[in-house]
Structure formats: C-alpha cells, structure tokens
Amino acid sequence: MKTLLRAGAALEQVLAAHHWRYCFIGGIANYRWGTPRLTNDLDLTLLTGFGEEAKYVDVLLQEFTSRIPDAAQFAATNRVLLLRTPDGFGIDVALGAMPFEERSIERASMFEYLPGATLRTCSAEDLIVHKAFAARPQDWVDIEGVIFKQRGALHWAQIRTELTELAALKEEPELLDQLERIADRAVSVIGPFNRDT
Questions:
Q1: Could you confirm whether domain 2-122 is CATH 3.40.1550.10?
Q2: What does DSSP assign to residue 165?
Q3: Cβ atoms of residues 56 and 41 within 8 Å
Q4: pLDDT tens, N- to C-terminus, the chain (197 residues)
Q5: Where are the domains of the chain?
Q6: Is the dihedral of CA 163, 165, 169, 172 positive or negative?
C-alpha cells in the first residue's frame, strides 16, 4: 500500500503542477474514510468539462503510459482514461463534467496518508454517492465500512440529494432504498445516528 500511495503522490504532483481541479475517489478515498482494503489502482475524477477533454488527455499520455491501445479514443468515447504509473499501478481518470463531479471536487480535502504522500480525496459523503452510483457488490460493502468508521456522522441530506439526482439519470431510484437498508443495518451495530441532517 505504501508504494501505491507514493505513486499517488507522484500523480498528485503532476495534477497540481497544471493547476487542474481533481480529487481521488475509489479505493484510496475508501482507505481514508472507510474500512481499508487492498487496492492496486488509483481512481480519480479530473474536471475537464465537455469539449476540452483532449488537452487533458494529451498531457497525461505524455506523463504516463496508456494501458490500452488507442487510449485517447477510448477516453473520448467512455470518458475514462486508462493509464499506468511507472511502478505498474493502474490509473483510472474519470473525465468529469457533471455538476455532481464538480461539487465533489469542490468539497474534496487534502489528507496525509504517509509522510510525503498527501492526496486530495473526495469527502466521505461523496465517496458514498460515487459507490452507490457504481452499485457493484464491493461498493455496498465499502459504503457500510464508511458508515461504521464515521459512526454515522455524515451529512445524510447531502448524500440523498446527490444520489437522487444521479439515480434519476441512471433510471435506478432503487439505489436510494439500498442505501437506506445498509444504513438501517449499521444502526444495529453502532447504534442510532441522525439521518435527518
């Protein structure tokens, strides 16, 4: 994990040097806010907006190796740039443009994982929203871990507002029901917490 965090710090330096707006999400953010688990890649959102993606992609492809052929075309189609650090760790760069992504970056904060490895990560609340939107089995496990570690002390109104908007885009309103079920389960372990704020 230390090697991955140092690779993240090197990536952070590149992003900061260009004065870009970004934050780490995924496993690295989960390591900060939830139950740490082994992860071998770096996930981040880079705010590119619509129409300017190529200039960001071109710079990153000069700094890092692509993981696939035609990475720039893949990024243009899928809004994800797949890179590799010199140490061999995967980097998934989501090319952000949605209002939630912009707000998530605005709410992000720096966190020192190790001496010399300080990374800008999304908030605990935004991590929950990211993971609920992805809705893979491991994402729900991670969400439960965040709720446990934060003892439920989260801005639930913000989580619901953001997830409601994204779930509507995905046409999966049931994502909110699943989140509430996980929160209910957490109450049985850590005790009642305020979900009205």
A1: no
A2: H
A3: no
A4: 789 999 999 999 999 999 999 999 999 999 999 998 888 899 999 999 999 999 999 999 999 999 999 999 999 999 999 999 999 999 999 999 999 999 999 999 999 999 989 999 999 999 999 999 999 999 999 999 999 999 989 999 999 999 999 999 999 999 999 999 999 999 888 888 888 88
A5: 2-122, 127-190
A6: positive
**Which of 83, 103, 76, 117 is CA-nearest to residue 163?**
103
Which residues are within 8 A (CB) of 118 and not within 5 positions of it... i.e. 6 or more apart?
Answer: 9, 12, 110, 111, 112
- CA distances 139 to 27, 34, 102, 146, 166, Å, are 10, 11, 21, 11, 16
Q: In a 3-state reduction of DSSP, which class is residue 51?
A: coil
Residue 96's φ and ψ, nearest 5 degrees, are: -80, 140
Alpha-carbon Rg for the chain in angstroms: 17
Rounded distance between C-alpha atoms, residue 162 and residue 82, angstroms? 26
* Residues whose CB is less than 8 angstroms from the CB of residue 104 and which lie 6 or more positions away in sequence, other chains included: 23, 25, 45, 122, 123, 126, 129, 130
| Closest by CA position to 175, among listed 188, 162, 185 | 162
